[in-house]
Amino acid sequence: MKDQFTKYVQSLGMTKPLLERAESVLSFYEIVLTSPIKDLFVSEYVNEEKTRVYESLYLFSDQAIMEAKQFVSDDVYDWAPLPESIMYWEIKRKDFDLKTATEKSRLFLTVRLHGSGLGTMSAELKASAANCDQLFSIFQLTSCPELESVRLKSFLCCARLRNCQSFTNDQQNALQHLF
What's the predicted TM-score (pTM) here? Predict the structure, then answer.
């Protein structure tokens, strides 16, 4: 596992057995895929007892998003292409200014992906405290990487990624200049 990945999962308080589970997931995807893993994200939340609960491990390449569901105890893996498959996203945030997370920060990202022949798939990524920074960074890189503004991303992604036939390339280019 890359040093940056190890430091990231350790920053979430993951113990050695959980780190080994994350390494196992990463090894699986490295064996079955040809494109390198560029980033990863642990979906987690803090429960009522103030204990961090780890849910899914997401991995990202230039072309795909991968999820190991309930990676702490299960070996269930999936894959979906990016970014063309993103057809909807929603962000919910609490005590997070999108710049610097605090211990009270929470970020929830729901993404719907259009799966070829499988209908619509969705993913719910959760983050608490400093993990909000990681989730928001991944969101910016995977949603529409060629656009700098989140406002532009939300408008243009809907038109471009849904393969909207009512917008020509010239019209989409003109829309980019409006903002």
Answer: 0.75
